[in-house]
Amino acid sequence: MDFTFTEEQQAAVxxxxxVFTDVAPDSVPSPALTPGAVADDIDRPLWAKLAASDxxxxxxxxxxxxxxxxxxALCLVLxxxxxxxxxxxxxxxxxxxxxxQAHGSPALAAALxxxxxxxxxxxxxxxxGRSGHDPAELAVTxxxxxxxxxxxxxxxxxxxxxxxxxWIAVPAHxxxxxxxxxxVPRTAEGLTLADQFSTSGxxxxxxxxxxxxxxxxxxxxxxEAWERLRRLLTTGTxxxxxxxxxxxxxxxxxxTGKREQFGFPVATFQAVAVQAADRYIDLRAMEVTLWQAxxxxxxxxxxxxxxLPSAGDVxxxxxxxxxxxxRVVQTAQHLHGGFGADTDYPLHRYHAWAKQxxxxxxxxxxxxxxxxxxxxxxxxx
Length: 381
Description:
Elements: H1 7-20, H2 44-52, H3 71-83, H4 90-103, H5 106-118, E1 123-125, E2 140-145, E3 149-160, E4 167-173, E5 179-185, E6 191-197, E7 203-215, E8 219-220, H6 223-258, E9 260-261, E10 264-265, H7 270-299, H8 310-336, H9 347-359, H10 364-377
Helix pairs in contact: 1-3, 3-6, 4-5, 4-6, 6-7, 6-8, 6-9, 7-8, 8-9, 8-10
């Protein structure tokens, strides 16, 4: 087996590192000192750089102006983005574009994907349902209106970057047990946004739809479209958690290597070294489960009655990401002492982002339950 990344994937990483090299994690006010959002908009200069480097079209086909790469390449770029706490909807934008490309109508793809690749259109997705705990597709109902239109009603909470997006992917159900995916412009009549704020201080939105009408070409009826988008978003969240955790552990190594106690760097103390080593093991487990999940999403292997479907790999990756990133930032805070809570030092920002990623799209317990259901439905023996 060859576990190395392709030349194209490695080139994407190098391009991402070049774009993110000058991004400062503390470029906005501290979430610990800000009662609302740390900023009203995404990092537009960074968004423009990502577009200029062709990273926004990374996963789009060449016919739409993209590079035609895969989920693994996207996760590699997301990993680098998290190391600097990049304030851009890179995950939601690219995952939504992938769903439109794979399952949307040619008219919808032509309307959205070229602009998405250039960065002139910003895409996001509503994936948390009404409360953040119930399935997102159950929070919105849709019904046919005439022969070519649909009407949406319902509420989605915690929609990331919605105020800055041009289009929002909204999962809904038809009342007949079918999940569909609607692409709705932010300015659609009947759609309203109410401000919410994430643990990391970023601006979210409660999205209310009251008789929002969308044409049939803007609604994806393929039953697997929403499920794949949800798995893409979850896997991408695991990539963000991995990148954040790696940067936090590196910060901890730098600090404990310089901080002296009793005339020696504290990194040389056995208790410190063992804790750091345990967190390194967490990161390697997060990494291997992430690449397994990303590979399975692209390979689309697994059938009923045989090995677990890709949803099982995604659940395992999110369990490790949620638990692992929490342990990494907690250990980092402990080994930094009071310095880790200093708002002039960026570690507390990483802690806030880590808590957001831990709970985003379900905590570990929710994915453990989902994995148990999959194991019951797909016996391995």
